[in-house]
User: Which sequence fits this backbone?
């Protein structure tokens, strides 16, 4: 490795012999730039290696010592620790792709992954953005617009306003029509940001004004809409996969009800809370919506499910998600490889009929947060790191003994995914894994997750999105 390059932050290592095994394929990418960090960057490197695609990682000064960078064929420093100085610097990332000769870019999740303007820039620079078309990103990235698409496609949405709200009198009229309580949501928001519950009409106008202001400041988009507030819902999402030939299929659902402050803690598939009829309707609705948007990559349709089993579309995540391994376990389909193949113009290798769903999978997110201190993020050096293993166990992590966990980024340190024939077996296996996992001396969510998994309400799946806040 060149010392000079290293000192300049360019760790240059194109010594991999992968080309020896290369199968000739005109369409497939030769080199992918990974515009992300941490466990998902490592996950994408692994998929690329198996596809014989070279990898280029970009990293911030804060991530220089991350071990996964050594697995990439090349790593390029793009700036300072703050995401705005590095992982969100679209021009530097595109420049890194250009100088390294990458023909495609994988955005992972978070950062620039759902930024349609960034995807457009990549494509203008002849770099394939591994994600949906710019049109699909625009159509579904805006929540109010996604609602309109869903309604047109006859997918059930939460009763609410038609598009964006501008006139207060009009809003009052709509609010009285749908009834209270209701929820004001930011069109540019998502994942729980920029939402407000309104209990009666006296609060409505003031809340609207506040919501617009907050949304404008947070998302650079002051558009809001209203929906009826669904009390104690479950959160069930459907994995969809589309190619550039018009094929769209679903890969089943994930139940993500177990969360705290919109941060998911546990995800599982199949959902233990819906009947098989609801499941097939839900999955069919997701495919209808994806087809209506000409969706051509991996994506997720999020739904709320009420206590009577009725479901309502809420939003689309036009990216690969943290919890994708749950679906990989039950379908035995590699979602990252498939996403890359579809972005390269290949046709899906499977059809709805050939996809098989087997067993039960659960994922626990291990965050470096102190559950006894209101989940305050922790940082520092990991001294002991002993991940669990055994049949049906997968651990996705960028952690290791000696790793310095930075306080500058997401506290997600590891994901433990178990796959067993039945849900009770999966829970037992997960509890075993949570007990085996040693991460010292940092505080993590491990002890909290042990309590959750052993809780009778979780075992019986007698929970809703408020379970954690009420119970712990
Ligand atoms: C809702 C809702 C109730 N009614 N919309 C929160 C995250 C964002 N994706 C949508 N969210 C919600 N939207 C209506 N009309 C309740 C939530 C909600 C929630 C949704 C999914 C997972 C966890 C949640 C926790 C609290 C509230």
Assistant:
């Amino acid at each position: 490795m060149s010392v000079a390059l290293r000192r300049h932050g360019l760790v240059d290592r194109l010594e991999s012999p992968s080309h020896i095994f290369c199968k000739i394929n005109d369409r497939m990418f030769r080199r992918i730039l990974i515009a992300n960090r941490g466990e998902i960057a490592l996950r994408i490197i692994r998929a690329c290696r198996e596809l014989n695609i070279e990898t280029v990682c970009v990293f911030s000064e804060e991530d220089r010592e991350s071990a996964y960078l050594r697995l990439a064929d090349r790593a390029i420093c793009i700036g300072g620790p703050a995401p705005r100085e590095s992982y969100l610097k679209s021009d530097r990332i595109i420049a890194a792709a250009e100088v390294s000769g990458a023909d495609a870019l994988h955005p992972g999740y978070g950062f620039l992954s759902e930024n349609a303007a960034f995807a457009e820039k990549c494509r203008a620079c002849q770099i394939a953005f591994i994600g949906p078309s710019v049109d699909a990103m625009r159509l579904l990235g805006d929540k109010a617009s996604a609602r309109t698409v869903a309604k047109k496609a006859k997918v059930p949405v939460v009763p609410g306003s038609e598009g964006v709200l501008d006139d207060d009198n009009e809003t009052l009229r709509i609010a009285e029509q749908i009834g209270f309580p209701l929820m004001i949501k930011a069109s540019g928001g998502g994942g729980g940001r920029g939402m407000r519950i309104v209990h009666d009409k006296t609060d409505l106008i003031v809340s609207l004004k506040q919501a617009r202001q907050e949304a404008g400041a947070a998302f650079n988009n002051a558009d809001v809409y209203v929906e009826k507030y669904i009390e104690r819902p479950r959160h069930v999402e459907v994995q969809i996969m589309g190619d550039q030939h018009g094929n769209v299929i679903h890969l089943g659902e994930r139940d993500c009800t177990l969360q705290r402050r919109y941060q998911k803690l546990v995800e599982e598939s199949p959902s233990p809370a819906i009947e098989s009829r609801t499941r097939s309707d839900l999955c069919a609705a997701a495919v209808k919506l994806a087809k209506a948007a000409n969706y051509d990559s991996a994506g997720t349709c999020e739904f709320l499910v009420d206590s009577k089993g009725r479901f309502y579309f809420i939003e689309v995540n036009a990216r690969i998600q943290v919890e994708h391994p749950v679906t990989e376990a039950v379908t035995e389909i590699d979602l990252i490889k498939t996403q890359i193949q579809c972005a390269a113009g290949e046709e899906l290798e499977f059809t709805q009929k050939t996809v098989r769903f087997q067993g039960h999978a659960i994922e626990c997110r291990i965050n470096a947060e102190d559950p006894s201190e209101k989940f305050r993020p922790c940082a520092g050096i990991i001294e002991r790191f002993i991940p669990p293993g055994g049949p049906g166990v997968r651990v996705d992590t960028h952690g290791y003994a000696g790793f310095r966990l930075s306080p500058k980024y997401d506290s997600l340190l590891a994901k433990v995914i178990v796959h067993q024939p039945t849900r009770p077996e999966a829970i037992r296996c997960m509890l075993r894994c949570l007990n085996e996992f040693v991460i010292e001396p940092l505080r993590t969510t491990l002890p909290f997750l042990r309590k959750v998994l052993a809780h009778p309400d979780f075992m019986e799946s007698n929970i809703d999105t408020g379970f954690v806040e009420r119970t712990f």
Notes: The longest strand covers residues 182-190. Residues 159-228 form a domain with the Dna Ligase; domain 1 fold (CATH 3.30.1490.20). The pocket of MV4 is lined by residues 158, 183, 191-192, 227-230, 233, 235, 259, 262, 302, 304, 314-315, 465 (CB under 6 Å).
